[in-house]
Amino acid sequence: MPPIKLAIVTLLLLLPSLVVSSPTEKATKKQPNILILLVDDLGFGDIGANGNTTIRTPNVDRIAKEGVRLSHHLTAAPVCTPSRSALLTGKYPIRMGMVPSIQMQVFPFTASQAGLPTNETTFAKVAQRSGYRTGLIGKWHLGAHCSNSKDFCHHPNNHGFDYFYGCLLTLLKDFSGLGESVLHSRFPHYYRNISLTLLATLASLGVGYKIGILPRKLCIFLALLGVLVTGFLFCLPDYLVRTVNSQLHRQTELVEQPIRFEKLTQRLVWEGEEFLDKAVDEGKPFLLFMSFLQVHSPLYNSVPGYRGRSAHGWYGDNIEEMDWSVGQILDALDKPCTPSSDNGGHIEETTHTGERAGGHNGIYRGSKCQGAVDGGIRVPGLLRWPGVIPAGSQSNALTSQMDIFPTLLEAMGQPVPSGIDGRSITKLLRQPQSTKSPHDFLFQYCGTLLHAVRWNSPEGVLKLRHYSPNWLPGTEGCRYICGCMEGLGSVRHSVPLLYDLSADERETAIVPADSERYRRLVPQILEAERRHQASLSSVPSQFTFAKLMWRPWLQDCCNFPLCNCRDTKY
């Protein structure tokens, strides 16, 4: 498609994956165009702007050269579903019931009742009410249905996006068809344990019948039931996870199942370009959220010339292909922009051949799904605002992805609602050399548990850590991911650990608990915790077993019962 001709840039924000560009020739100054780009599982150290010299990301890096780099920018959660809910609403996920109290930290099925509550206000809803054409291309992972397969109550269309093309769930390793499985990675003895459970059950029934405790008919019924349940659990990875979860939707229509990786990168770009074309033709300001499926596993390359291109193997190839996508969208706008990540890189991830498939989090310790350490939540933050932000500048101030919501609303000229946790960083953008953060405290959750607290104190940025990930010896990761709960991937500290991040970003030296400084500072942090937790209201959880479980009547399936179709547009 020909590039979109926009008026000269008067406003451009990247927060961290955000651009508010100039209006089009037909748009008003009070209604800037908004482009948001988010990359799945991108590590802090995966881009050149944050010091990587061996992965080529020229389209991302030029934004830092022309704007500001936020070096202390955090997500509200260390994993995608809760993190994305905070990005859209400016609120801690716990305020919306978007945090797990169980080990399952994300929504596992499209055919479940879990999702972003319909009463939540997203920046897309605000933009839509303000006359914007709004679109989301790529990953959603915030739910689909409530009570039937046609209601789409949690769908992007019901959260402010006029147009949607992409994946209602997320990419899973199982989609590749290469024998990879996220279930096997998390539970490597899955099939063995199921088989042993069945054998033990059948043996127990046999003994019960032999000694006269169980009647013959009951034994036969329970044995058949056990075989059926075992068969279902054996089919679960291939059918429920790979076949029916692997979907692409255009609006609410299921257009591809399972997902074909052929030209998938290009298709997402083409959809974004087409959305921009239509917005300009209509003379409306636009908000486009490009939510890339890369660089989450399974790794794939669909653009010719990118497989085998990077010095960092297949994962590096994916990052460079993602950067190509960013460049294509920038060309369509004739102006630069940048991606960011929904959480830290997944350092434990591997491909089916054992090749490393997860990100690099720079100097920061830990990984995705680890809420206490910065490797799980510190993400790239690159912002460009011509005439306001000095080119090539850097800010070390403490900021959060929740700040996108109020800053965007200010840019659109809309009032910022009360009761949110994000803070506008417009003033900070005007003076990026300032270390004055809009936040005194930021609270780091993993599930429903408060793992750590950051304090932007007069003595620098401090962190009080209540939990630590239970890493495998000699590593900074767990077997696949670290769970949030004590004994299931995390360790609780009876005496919280205090770190001075201004002097020790890598968190290698604690402030001694018997020191005067510890005794003076920690009570102030604990009091801030108490006030924060007192501000939380009881809301229905979206992570109950009942909401997360697969429901056949909510399942989308094209060409039933084959559940197989491909997008005929491409």
Automatic annotation (TrEMBL):
InterPro entries: Alkaline_phosphatase_core_sf, Sulfatase, Sulfatase_CS, Sulfatase_N. PANTHER family: ARYLSULFATASE FAMILY MEMBER, SULFATASE N-TERMINAL DOMAIN-CONTAINING PROTEIN. Residues 32-413 form the Sulfatase N-terminal domain. Its cofactor is Ca(2+). Keywords: Calcium, Hydrolase, Membrane, Metal-binding, Signal, Transmembrane, Transmembrane helix. Belongs to the sulfatase family. This is Sulfatase domain-containing protein. It holds the Pfam family Sulfatase_C. It comes from Macrostomum lignano. Residues 1-21 form the signal peptide.
